[in-house]
Amino acid sequence: MGKEIEGVNKKISGETKLRVRYAETDKMGVVYHSNFLIWFEVGRVELLRQCGFDYREMEKKDNCHLPVVDLKIRYKAPAQYDDEIVVRTDLKRMSASLLHFSYEVFRESDRTLLATGETMHIVVDSKLVRTSLPEKYMKAFRDLTFHDPTFCDPTKNS
Amino acid sequence: MGKEIEGVNKKISGETKLRVRYAETDKMGVVYHSNFLIWFEVGRVELLRQCGFDYREMEKKDNCHLPVVDLKIRYKAPAQYDDEIVVRTDLKRMSASLLHFSYEVFRESDRTLLATGETMHIVVDSKLVRTSLPEKYMKAFRDLTFHDPTFCDPTKNS
Amino acid sequence: MGKEIEGVNKKISGETKLRVRYAETDKMGVVYHSNFLIWFEVGRVELLRQCGFDYREMEKKDNCHLPVVDLKIRYKAPAQYDDEIVVRTDLKRMSASLLHFSYEVFRESDRTLLATGETMHIVVDSKLVRTSLPEKYMKAFRDLTFHDPTFCDPTKNS
Amino acid sequence: MGKEIEGVNKKISGETKLRVRYAETDKMGVVYHSNFLIWFEVGRVELLRQCGFDYREMEKKDNCHLPVVDLKIRYKAPAQYDDEIVVRTDLKRMSASLLHFSYEVFRESDRTLLATGETMHIVVDSKLVRTSLPEKYMKAFRDLTFHDPTFCDPTKNS
To answer: CA-CA distances (angstroms) from residue C68 to B23, C71, C99, D115?
Structure first.
């Protein structure tokens, strides 16, 4: 669901905020680049929470884990110490076995775009063996995007 | 220099080793994915050192910094605590203003490929303003790959 | 100022909240212990902000940095992924050249005490040479604790 | 066993080396202080390895984990990017339920002492319930320090 289809579906997206920690900076005086991946994680987990899901419970009760298998990030501008950061996360596509998120990271004060990125996740159990998202998650995401029949298709175990 | 041109040039590549730290693991029991980016950095800096360059001196004496502007990574298999890891780094292409590295991360014991990735870097000064690599670096890299006229071309400020 | 002297002075203390990130956990399934130091830093910076000071500006405009020179921490109970954490920070004592903070880290949900600690900081400039806090900071902290003549004594350059 | 008793026992101590990573620095231009705790962990694990123990196996096969419960560190001098670091680790005292390590962190080039510290560890199982070190570890450490009857005393479950 890279682009929103007008009047037809709803994007599953959300924003979360955080503040740059001193520990996240490096000797260049700006945020060390790998920390953006941790911010993506924060954005992703908060998006799931906004959709009604608690990733901690998903791991504990449903034995479903979502490791990253593919990641891209483009850095546009440096993040500075103590900046308030907005992470905008979109769930672009999902099936019972694969989730695809995209991200935009902004400095809040002037809404400068700092980075964009994407992550792909598979579904595994605690032994790291591939499994499927329980139907309750699939149904919930379908309900959230009910007008878009292609958005999440539980019959396709991509 | 994505592919080696037979009998014509030399790849600028190198390997470095490290051991997975407890701090790098997460509650899934494997290495948290953002740590691979730090390992890429270790591989890159060691490759520069093997080429005769000290990145610390490049920053301090030449006021040249190489921030990551674009990054891709594909995770193939999990890295485990205490694994000995090999990072193979290739300098794929460079100009006076842009460097392109690729990486392969292996578990040393069974040579399992854990991840592959690429990073693009621009050259900036300590104020984060774009600048060019001093000619001594360009010459050195040209000498290391002397048979390949296309590898690093100081006239192209890409 | 470990204990508040009734009717005489005010403690300089504050609370800040954060949520445990996946990246902060380790393979034991709980937060890796060094992350508590980063949370102390978050607590300390927010306490300064609550006192009217912006540590970023202190570094940039006043060329004052506060590196940790001594640190103690006692771990009482593990922090879990996704826990909401409260960091309570107290400024225990300060002079123009030395600051002493103490910390209590709680899980918010059940107010379990997870860790206690202390940090000592010296004041240095950007060259890491010892310097003194500008009088404006000393005055402000004196005003905040105005009834306690021993709390911060700018004549003692301890 | 803070001090060696001449002619009577052997200290259990060892050294390990590492190189400062860019990711470990902060905007003050030096290593962020919490990274020293990770280096302590590296030193501790290598000391156990030098004693014939593999901490990974201790966790996996013996279900023994050694979380830090108490930690002190004194910072003497900053560590710089790309410095080669020596971590000297001593096992100061142990029982079947408690281990006490001390550390000295040096810059290798000029043997400057950068930090000293101590950690206390309890022994827990994977559920974080207190347990005891298997007798094989106790015996091995007794053998390594065989002349010192007070060093590790398996009858004292401190």
So the answer is: 21, 7, 9, 11
Q: Where are the strands (E) in C4-157, listed by range?
A: 12-19, 68-75, 84-94, 98-107, 113-122
Nearest Cα of chain B lies from the Cα of D91 at a distance, in angstroms, of: 19
| CA distance linking residue B51 with residue B43, whole number of Å | 12
C26 classed as catalytic: yes
pLDDT at C148: 53
- Residue of chain C nearest A65, judged by CA positions: C22
Binary contact (C69, D78; C-beta < 8 A): no
In C, minimum Cα distance to A57 occurs at: C82
Task: Identify whether A3 is part of a domain.
Answer: no
Nearest-CA distance D79 → chain C (Å): 12
Task: Flag whether pLDDT at A148 surpasses 90.
Answer: no
Closest residue, chain D, to B57 (C-alpha): D82
Residue C158 lies inside a defined structural domain of this protein? no
C29 alpha carbon, distance to own chain's centre:
27
Judge whether D81 and A27 are in contact, CB under 8 Å.
yes
Per the structure block, which two tokens stand in for D130?
A: 């207190």
Is the alpha carbon torsion for C55, C59, C63, C66 positive or negative? positive
Q: Is residue C149 domain-resident? A: yes
- What whole-number distance in Å separates Cα of residue C12 and Cα of residue C152? 11
Interface contact D26-A27, CB threshold 8 A: yes
By the 8 A CB rule, do A105 and A79 touch?
A: yes
Q: Which residues of D touch C129 (CB under 8 A)?
A: none
Number of domains in chain D: 1
More confident residue, A155 or C114: C114
Q: In the beta sheet, which residues pair with residue A107? A: A85
Partner residue facing B21 (CB), from D42, D54, D80: D42
What residue in B sits closest to D57 (Cα-Cα)?
A: B82
> Residues D9-27: pLDDT tens digits?
568 999 999 999 999 999 9
State whether B37 and A38 contact (CB < 8 Å). Answer: no
Q: Decide if pLDDT at C8 tops 50.
A: no
User: Which residues of A participate in catalysis according to the annotation?
Assistant: 26
C54 contacts in chain A (CB < 8 Å): 82
> Which A residues in the span 13-52 are in contact with B, Cβ-Cβ below 8 Å?
27-30, 33-35, 37-38
Say if the Cβ atoms of A82 and C22 lie within 8 Å: no
* pTM across the whole model: 0.90
CATH, residue B88: 3.10.129.10
Other C-beta atoms closer than 10 Å to the C-beta of B40 total 25
Structural domain contains residue B140: yes
**Successive 10-residue mean pLDDT values, chain B, 158 residues:** 40 95 98 98 96 94 97 98 98 93 98 98 97 92 69 50
Name the CA dihedral angle for C16, C22, C25, C28, rounded to a multiple of 10 degrees: 140
pLDDT digits (tens, 9 = 90+) for D77-95: 999 999 999 999 999 999 9
Interchain CB contact of B74 with A (< 8 Å): yes
pLDDT at A3: 35
Q: What is the pLDDT of residues A108-146, one digit of tens each?
A: 999 999 999 999 999 999 999 999 999 999 888 888 876
Domain with B111, as residue range(s), is 8-153
C112 to chain D, any CB pair closer than 8 A? The answer is no
Res. C145 pLDDT band, cuts 50 70 90: confident
Token pair in block for residue B89: 């780094």
